[in-house]
Amino acid sequence: xxxxxxxxxxxxKEAVPYSEKLLGAIEKVSEELAGESYPETHDAVNxxxxxxxxxxxxxxxxxxxxxxxxxxxxxxQTNSAVKELSEAVTARxxxxxxxxxxxxxxxxxxxxxxxxxxx
Length: 119
Known about the structure:
The protein is an all-alpha fold. Helices cover 85% and strands 0% of the residues.
């Protein structure tokens, strides 16, 4: 059992600094999507989505640890934001993509803060 806990902590050691970078990217890209976007903005959205997917895997693998003192992540809100992002990307609606990314930033921040306690 201790091995699993240590593996979870090791993953969080990678995820916490990554989540800081991802939060910065989400903020920048959300602003661009809500205002003046550039050709590379949509490529950045795809990279952010890949990063979010990795953090979802991290969360799923560590939620037993990080939720041991209470719910660190609002899963219902996160799932709703994922659905909104999916629909917005499909509709190619930059404003809605921006809003969904901001909501998913809450997930990233929550995971970051919860993970920081263990590293």
